[in-house]
Amino acid sequence: MCSYRKLLPLLALAALPFIPVRLAAQDSLAKALPAPQGTYIDGVVANVAGRIILYSELASRMEQARQQGVPVNDTLACRELEDLLYQQLLLEQARIDSVPVDQAQVNAELDRRISYFEQQIGGREKLEKFYGKSITEIKADFREQVSDQMLVQQMQQKVTGDARVTPKEVERFFKDIPKDSLPFINAGVEYAEITILAKPTEDEDRRIKLKLEEYRDAIVKGEKDFCTVAVLYSEDPGSAAQCGELGMVPQGVMVPEFDAVALSLKDGEISPVFKTKYGYHIMEMIDRKGERYNARHILLSPKATAADKQTAKDRLDSLMTLVRDGKIEFTKVATEDNDDEETKGSNGVVIEPNANSPHWAIGDLDQKTFLVLDKLAVGQISEPQYFEEPGGDMGYLVYRLLKRTEPHRMDLVTDYPLVQQAAEAKTRQAAIGSWVREKLSGTYVHIVEPYATCAFEHPWTGVPKP
Asked: Distance between CA atoms of 381 and 384, rounded to whole angstroms?
């Protein structure tokens, strides 16, 4: 393998990806990787059927790896570049096959990511300040990126299919691993949870709706100014200070109910009061151009009171008493009474997203979850834990510890799910290898020097790996 020292200086800059983490500082990466002579802004690293990969995309991935403690070196640069090449090949094949993307799923994924990053950074206002944009503008900026990521996932599923392996194949895969090469498994847990949200009463819901109708009537009659009401009373922190104005957004960035109202209004028209999952709105259309629009809105949200929180806690307590007394199964409550949609579909089991597995390494748990689980015996259910999300949801949840493992060498019986995943991953990798080789035979690919000298897994440069 040849030296890639010329690769590394190009990684002193990076574009901000869709995560709320700025570069630690451009010069901090430059200290580890000496910057090239002069000022390097950006450039093309590779081209896959006309789909270019920029140096900044590769540098961004390298920066993320560095922040996660991964050594930044030539091998990492080549591995990340190959992943980008594979993604572009998938996107090109999706174009050829006319594979559609479900816009509702894109919206849901954007909402999920925004919610997650709000939680990580400390709320919506801090996230907007971080980017210097409103949530609506952030969603618009990253919509295409998220859409491409989901398209890549769809195409990869088509490539790998349902990569299942039989128990015999899992056992054979495990036995083929030399004993001294068996991976070391860190201490971990498997756990389930049930969530009960504190929900506003019908009286509170009705009060908020009537209050917004009063504001609307006063605005329509000219007694109040839309901008003034938005600044003083709107509960959308991203637009209130701008008189409720959202800026020009394409259809699909906002929730479907919001888009439906926007596309029914004429310029200057004020909508009736309408409801979305965020609360009650009124909207004034400023300008509409096809399926893009700029509107102002005022948002008021029903609030859960202390009594509503206590009601949620009491309900969860009652359900867990029935479970502990053996009168109802935990899994039944998790599927029928759980307010968390993700765990509702998995009998309450919390899935580790990166490995898509119920096994969580202790170090991957957030501190609050770890502190609760650490005190539980296997099978034990915690007391209700209060939570409050930056997006406004609040309530109580309980944890149930399903399994605890100590640090050990991988074992077929103890770690069967992990062994099965590894066996399936090998099957998927073989399918990917065959697919890439087939598509590369008829696809234009160009990789600039010195990146073309990478020892890729697949023959991107026309020379198969020895």
From this structure: 9
The whole domain housing 69 covers: 1-98+412-466
The pLDDT of residue 390 is: 67
Does residue 46 sit within a domain? yes
Query: 192 and 317: one domain?
Result: yes
- For tokens 């100590």, what's the residue? 406
Same-domain check for residues 140 and 207: no
How many domains in the chain? 4
- The predicted pLDDT at position 41 comes to 57
| Contact predicate 63/14, CB 8 Å | yes
**Beta-carbon contacts of residue 196 (< 8 Å; ≥ 6 apart):** 312, 313, 315, 316, 319, 337, 338, 339, 395, 396, 397
Full-model pTM: 0.59
Dihedral sign computed on CA atoms, order 203, 206, 212, 215: negative
Q: Which residues contact 339 (CB under 8 A, 6 or more apart)?
A: 195, 196, 197, 395
Residue 382 C-alpha from the chain's centroid: 28
352 and 438, same domain (yes or no): no
Q: End of a domain among 274, 300, 326?
A: 300
- The verdict on 93 and 13 lying in the same domain is yes
| One-letter amino acid of 325 | D
* Neighbouring residues of 276: CB distance < 8 A, sequence distance ≥ 6: 255, 257, 258
How big is the CA angle at 228 (ends 223 and 232), to the nearest 5 degrees?
A: 120
Tokens encoding 134: 């409103």
Residue 432 identity: I
- The answer to whether position 174 is within a domain reads no
In this structure, are 443 and 399 located in the same domain?
no
- d(CA 78, CA 228) in angstroms, rounded, equals 55
CA distance to 174, 235, 238, 280, per residue, from 18 (Å): 37, 25, 18, 29
Q: Which two tokens stand for residue 342?
A: 């993700």
Same domain as 289, residue 418: no
Cβ atoms 229, 298 nearer than 8 A: yes
pLDDT mean by block of 10 residues, the chain; 466 residues: 34 31 33 42 86 88 79 88 94 91 84 77 78 84 89 88 85 92 88 96 95 96 95 89 88 84 92 92 92 91 93 96 96 95 92 85 91 95 91 89 91 86 88 91 90 90 56
The answer to whether the CB of 324 falls within 8 A of the CB of 401 is: no
Whether residue 461 is found in the same domain as residue 324: no
Say how many CA atoms lie within 13 Å of 100 toward its Cβ: 4
114 with 392: CB under 8 angstroms?
A: no
- Cβ(454)–Cβ(82) below 8 Å: yes
Question: Are residues 400 and 416 part of one domain?
Answer: no
For 248, the 3-state DSSP assignment is coil
